[in-house]
Amino acid sequence: xAFYYGEPSRTFSEFLLxxxxxxxxxxxAKVSLKTPLxxxxxxxxxxxxxxxxxxxxxMQSVSDDRLAVALAQEGGLAFIYxxxxxxxxxxxxxxxxxxxAGFVVSxxxxxxDMTLADVLAITExxxxxxxxxxxxxxxxxxxxGIVTNKDYRVSRMNPETKxxxxxxxxxxxxxxxxxxxxxxxxxxxxxxxxxxxxxVNKKQELVYLVFRKDYDTHKKNENELIDTSKRYMVGAxxxxxxxxxxxxxxxxxxxxxLCIDSSEGYSEWQKITLDYIxxxxxxxxxxxxxxxxxxDGFRFLAEAGADFVKVGIGGGAICITREQKGIGRGQATxxxxxxxxxxxxxxxxxxxxxxxxxxxxxxxxxITLALAMGADFVMxxxxxxxxxxxxxxxxxxxxxYMKEYWGEGSARARNWQRYDLGGEKKLSFEEGVDSLVPYxxxxxxxxxxxxxxxxxxxxxxxxxxxxxxxQKAKITLVSxxxxxxxxxxxxxxxxxxxxxxxxxxxxxxxxxxKRGDASGAxxxxxxxxxxxxxxxxxxx
Length: 540
Hints:
Elements: E1 15-18, E2 35-36, E3 40-41, E4 49-50, E5 54-56, H1 65-74, E6 77-80, H2 86-97, E7 109-110, H3 116-126, E8 131-134, E9 143-147, H4 163-166, E10 168-169, E11 176-177, H5 182-192, E12 196-200, E13 206-211, H6 212-220, E14 235-238, H7 243-253, E15 257-260, H8 268-281, E16 287-292, H9 295-304, E17 309-311, H10 321-325, H11 331-349, E18 351-352, E19 355-358, H12 364-372, E20 377-380, H13 382-385, E21 394-397, E22 400-406, E23 434-438, H14 443-460, H15 466-472, E24 474-477, H16 480-485, E25 498-499, E26 504-505
């Protein structure tokens, strides 16, 4: 007969952390969130670690090169989505790797025969006021000049004016060789009192731009995730179908880590993929696998050589696998069991295989709970989809700004490889939805807020590192009544957007969620309405 679990599977919202003793030394400023990304042997250091326990989901609507750079600046790692042509994905990886800390690859470029109208269109699209003029209008072309907002005046110039007529020509620019260090570049910037320094190669081709403002940004991003060449680190997703073509291309492009993107990882297909990579590259190419929800699945992938294991099936905001197939498990229960299996495997073999909690994060504190339950880091989709840096459009819906967000198993993405079980090369049915999420502003502001909450909670638990949190954490189940009690209740919620003169709610645009909560929730209750949030215990 079938095996029945005696306990129900649970989500993060069903648990709370109990405070532990915290000394005067236990303050957020001293908390380290550094965590291993890949397996390592006892007594050794992992070859790859990340500075914050956050990686981005392998999704079209989340992880492109722009988000990868932004997340690396904060200390996390993005996995470029794999549901695209191989060369296109490899080029995204290359674009990230072309960045060095403080060095920018120009994404705003024109040719001399383009017009002021073209310059204005690019400025409006990118928000950048400095535009490189190259012979072919591409970032790596021969540098012929620079256009800034100081070079033109819209009210006094014809939009059809050629760029060549008003650009600052190359011979009038201050520039430097491509081998110039960041310190040297900034010394030149300060000496010549300029805002931007182009770096060119011997062929006068544009390689990087160094901005005065980015120097301060670089100094502020102390946690930025860079490789030995001071380039931003980036991961990439692969599948179990075209790995023989995709993996070599991604390795050649410079991907720091790979991850098999699949809805269910307890499969021979993943072992075959891992075997191919290890046979071809040995242990030099780091690759994660998953997803699994129990100890058996973890051990299978660990023994197959996975460098980390992803945990979670059906817990994502846009995932409907549980609804469609009846497969999955509550995310908290899955993480707890897999973490136990990971620790047992470590005791037996002396090899530590990190686990990644993928899905089920609704609120910021869920991240801390996942870490306390044993996860080494978390993978986030909806969380990052809300930000400026995600690849999706920002749209206005009834006066509120939203961002598009769709699942890899949706009709829009049609990433059949992720759900492949052999047979026909098509998506048989949907396992994800096409949706909208509240726009939340910049990645930097929100990640900073989220991490401040994580660090604060860790201090409440008396922990300064993630391993210490996992050892010291005291976790309790909570009742439905306790869940209600944990939020605002028995009060009338105010809405500052309420129009006192008309007595009605004014049409407004949703502002970025300054609280940085993973939920992105914003109170939408009119000031004098009698809408109460969870009232009396007798009503529960």
